[in-house]
Amino acid sequence: MKALLKRLNSITIFIITGVMVALTGLLIFFFVSYTKTLSRTESDVTYDKYYAMITDDAESSFWKSVYESALETAKEDNAYVEMISNNLSREYSQTELMEIAIASKVDGIIVTAGEAEGMTELINKAYDEGIPVVTLFNDNAQSERLSFVGVGNYNLGREYGNLIIKMANERIFLGNHITVAVLVDASSEDSGQNVLAAGIQETIDRETTENAIKHKRIEVELVPVDASNSFSVEESVRNLFLLGPGNIPDIVVCLNENETNSVYQGVVDYNQVGFVNILGYYDSEAILKGIERDVIYATLSIDTQQLGQYCIDALTEYYELGNTSQYSAVDSYVINKKNVAEYMGEAQNEE
Could you state, in order of their start, the residue ranges of all structural domains in the chain? Predict the structure, then answer.
């Protein structure tokens, strides 16, 4: 009987595996067919190059802005960029999307990579098949990627660290020390988060050592967040506010738009305005309003126009010259109560 059950289980696993392989094959077939008919979807324009963009959250306004910039720049060079996750029937992981893009034989891939071993192998696979890969925002330096476009994580950490010090000087905190929670992706294998956290900690350590009498002790803790989707982020953030009096962090550092929005909402919902100070990320309309209302202390924003443009520039240079720069740095800037009106005006003009 046990042998029969074991055999049935093996058959079931074999059938399920076969179905999954077949579905993946069909998905790639349909996507390849879609890319071949792309020229007919854009007013019968025929493009010289077709690039795929893969990000960790295609629905966020941050990545939509990056994509729009990339698309605009690409069209100037008679190329097209597709956010391939937008044309699929269900959600796929970044590694699955990389497999689809490689199988589709696109002319270039733009991806928020990270240092995971699986991503390294896929970038190298694309390289072996003659597909240049530009890593965007999160690098994979050990791979055969063509170029990296973004901001150094250590420098971002230093920016956040300086803002924490500034806040410690300006605001009154209860207790004998200041607690800082840095939200990090629990599932990420990217070492960039650790580099950023090191930038924060070293900046704080240097400042508090030099001005020990002036500052309260500042304790930094990395808080894992389930970043699988918007709901899981909200759940992780909600847990911060359920820790009880004396355990809720004084400062929360958010490293993406989704986290910033969730913490902003949590501070309001749990009546923590004035008690929990937010350092956000990006300059969406909601985040700018949070700064204007003095709920968010400040936000770090990256130039999304440059992010998209520089990725396409790297691919264009590669095809025209055979090579391109290994690293393109984009601008970042701090938005706070003093200058938020300027950025809100820009957002309204864009609308």
Answer: 2-145, 153-302+334-350
From the number of C-beta atoms within 10 Å of its C-beta (0-12, 13-18, 19+), residue 251 rates as buried
The count of C-alpha atoms lying within 13 angstroms of the C-alpha of 341, restricted to the half-sphere facing its C-beta, is 1
More confident: 351 or 79: 79
Indicate the fold that domain 2-145 takes in CATH: Rossmann fold (3.40.50)
Domain with residues 153-302+334-350, CATH architecture:
3-Layer(aba) Sandwich (3.40)
Q: What is the pLDDT of residue 263?
A: 96
The distance from CA 156 to its chain's CA centroid, rounded to whole angstroms, is 13
Give the separation between CA 278 and CA 251, rounded to whole angstroms. 6
- The Cα 98–Cα 92 span in angstroms is 10
Query: Which letter, b or e, does each residue of 168-202 get, where b requires 16 or more Cβ atoms within 10 Å of its Cβ?
Result: beeeebeeeebbbbbbbbeebebebbeebbebbbe
SS (H, E, C) 11-70: HHHHHHHHHHHHHHHHHHHHHHHHHHCHHHHCCCCCCCEEEEEECCCCCCHHHHHHHHHH
**What would the pLDDT profile of 90-110 be if each residue is shown by its tens digit?**
778 889 999 999 999 999 999
Tell me what the mean pLDDT of segment 20-40 comes to: 48
